[in-house]
Structures are given as structure tokens and as C-alpha cells.
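User: For a reading group we're discussing how well predicted structures match intuition. Take BTB domain-containing protein. Before you show the prediction, I'll give you the sequence so everyone sees exactly what went in.
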Amino acid sequence: MDEINEHISMDFNDSRKSEWVRLNVGGTIFLTTRTTLGRDQKSFLFRLVQEAPDLNTDKDADGAFLVDRDPSYFGPVLNFLRHGKLVMNKDLAEEGVLEEAEFYNITDLIRVVKERIVERDAKQNQSSMKNVYRVMQCSGQELTQMVSTIPDGWKFEQLLNIGSNYNCGSEEHAEFLFVVSKECPTVVNGSDEPSDRAKVLQLKGTRF
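Assistant: Thanks. Here is the predicted 3D structure of BTB domain-containing protein, as C-alpha cells, for the group to look at:
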């Protein structure tokens, strides 16, 4: 009975050992399982642990599979296979992870990284935009026309009554400051558009 139990224990330990895989990626050792690497059965990593004949797989002195790729970008790839989420350090570029995902042919990761790049670029474009204000002075008679002729891309912000040029002022004789705004790209070099409303109000009398 003891011999049988010992044999079962040895078989169990051997199966546990065979499940674990060592990868030598660019000189850095990663320890994972065949199950993890087999999440995408069309990927290079699945075929690697199957030791597909066409891959001509090499191993180092300790038996780890040799993969000549950047280890810093392999971490996010391996973690994605582990839990299905893209987690990466801030100093890594999404394009680098995408290149590795395409090399290893991990379809889901390729899709996720591309979506991340689109979201990142959209945020960067949004942060590079700023509101530019324009202030126009007009009389009460001109106000209706001013409102109806706001150019495309500009939106109404504020109407300021600055009084009348006539002693017995009426609504027609009243003077207004008509404030509008528009989103414009931030100018990195050269003169920039004024964005501070207090400064813009000094432009009394300007037109589009």
C-alpha cells in the first residue's frame, strides 16, 4: 500500500512540475504555467510550450525556453494572459505592448491595446484644446443681428449691458458686450490666443 501511495504521489508531483514553464525572455526569467500560455491557442506562446517542430525551439542551460524579445514589454503580455486585463507601467508605451502582442499573435490583447491607444490619443487631443473668447460691442439695435450671425464653431457665453451713450437711454440706445467662445488648439510655439476672460474683456470693440 505504501508503494502505491508513493507512486501516486510521484505521478502527482511530476504532473505539477510539468505544468510549470520557465521562459527566458531577453535574459529575464519568467515562471508561469502551460494553462496560462495556452489561453490563446493560435498564439506563438501556445505553440512554444507545445514545442511545435516548425519553431525550432531553443532552451537555456536551465531548460527555460529562449525568446529573443524585450522582457519589459513581456510582463504586460503575460499578465493579460493570466487575468485578461491590460496592466502596464506608466513608463511603457502602448505601441510597444502592441508590437509584442502582434509578435506573439494574441488576438484579444491586440484589440485591447488598440482601443487603449485610441482612448489615449483622444484624451491628448482634448487636453491640447482651449477656449478662446471674443468680445464684441454692439448697440441694442444690432443685438438681434449679432445673435443670429454667430459663425459656426462659436457659442454664446455672456451678454453684458455697459449702459448708454445717451442721457435718456432706451433699450435701442443701450450698449452691450457680446461674449462668445470657441475651442482652439493650444499654440506651443509663438504667440498664443488669450484664454483668460479678464484679459479678453479688455478687447472691447473687437469683431470676429
